[in-house]
Amino acid sequence: MSAAGVEFGAAAFEPVVAAAARQQISRPSLSYWQDAWRRLKRNPRALTSLGIVAALLAFTVAGPWVWRIDPASQDVTQISQSPGLPATMTVVAPYVSWEGVTVADDAARMDIAAADLRLAAPATTQAVRLVWNPVAGATGYRVYRNVFDPSPDRALGLPLVEIDDPNRVSVEDRFDLRATRYWYSLAAIDAQGTELDEYAVLVVDVAGVTSAADAAYAGWIADPAAVEIGDEIALPYHPLGTDYLGRDMLARLMHGARVSLFIGIVAPLLFVLTGILYGSAAGFAGGRIDQFLMRFADFVVALPFLIFMIIFRIAFGIGPGESGVVPMLIALVVLMWPATARLVRGQVLQIRQEGYVAAAQLLGAGAPYLVFRHMIPNTMGVILVTLTFEIPKVIFIEAFLSFIGMGVAPPTPSWGSMANEGIKTMLVHPHELLFPAILISLTVLA
């Protein structure tokens, strides 16, 4: 009977039946890799980097199948061509030699400022013909060409010709002409061979032209008779420009990525695997074996990489100017594993003290089972982080070795060797250095 005087019998109580769904596990267990993938999907920056890496791999593997241009093929008509739209040339008559202009001894002469430096004919990639009025007091002339305005600091540029006849008032430029803008400078020379302080400047925009025979020889057209004077011919397209030898930059970047990424991925995988096995053995064995193995690892750390790189090149018979991919790969695998071995050893020493390892030993588990089933899987976090740091490190090492001429040698392209070639012309043609540097930085960052 309750406090209110109400009696409760057995019929007043009914059993509570729990729903079957409430007894089920609401969150199934995940494996290590399933949990890692779940965490990766929650990290947008990691997914972006993964997408960049996938795009670089597609650029490397599938790119040469799409862009079928030989990376070693040279186009001398488009040397150091900047990125841009497809270029065209106008068909003109074949080149005809020019005798130039010579004035009489009694011709009127004037100051250099009134020399009136001008074109004798339209400027084309066949020839640029300049004439001027004779200068008073001049015993000769020097003509210069520049791709920049020389007026700020009198940087007249490339000396084209020196004329020792004061009556010769013309010059023809046919040296490596391109469809661009040039600044031509005329300086007069006095009797002592010294240039006068003043000089005349002419800005010339050169038009790209070719003859039908030259276009057929270059492979731009099949039949010279099929074109007429005044027709436009499309040149081979180079979307990222060309290098200093007229080689397509896009094709060289694709093929160079194969070398850079091959070394940057294969070498870390090999020496990280070596470090995992070595560090696991040292940490599990312990005692004097551990001390001996780690002292040997300290000895390997002290070995100079560049000296061993040179030794391996000599051992494999790699001479100057030859690519040393195999010696580089072996040197990386032989000398770069101790860092991973130290990290794995420390993790294994800590895991050895865990209760589940002791339980596995009591159940009869052997050393291989303990190492490969319990210890190495529980060090995967450290191993993956180490691998992600080692890959960009090795890419930089390959780029540095190729940059100093000890890695991949021309004509075999790699991003490092392309950067080495591009730095020589970076002030005039920055795209030759910019594109490989961007890909190296993007790969390392991703």
- Sequence of secondary-structure elements: HHHEEEEEEEEEHEHHHHHHHHHH
Structural class: alpha+beta
- The CA-CA distance between the termini, in Å, is 76 Å
Helical segment tally? 14
Q: Main β-sheet, in a few words?
A: 4 strands, antiparallel
Unreliable runs: none
Shape: elongated
Give the tally of β-strands: 10
Task: Output the strand order for the largest sheet.
Answer: 5-4-7-8
Helix fraction, binned, reads: 40-55%
Fraction of residues in β-strands: 5-15%
Mean pLDDT: 83
- Rg computed from alpha carbons, rounded to a whole number of angstroms: 37 Å
Task: Explain this structure.
- The protein is of the alpha+beta class.
- 43% of the residues lie in helices and 12% in strands.
- The chain has 14 helices and 10 strands.
- A 4-stranded antiparallel sheet has the order 5-4-7-8, with no helix packed on it. It has a 3-stranded mixed sheet with strand order 9-1-10. Strands 2-3-6 form a 3-stranded antiparallel sheet, with no helix packed on it.
- β2 and β3 form a beta hairpin.
- The protein is elongated, with a radius of gyration of 37 Å.
- The termini are far apart.
- The relative contact order is 0.11.
- The model has no long low-confidence stretch (mean pLDDT 83).
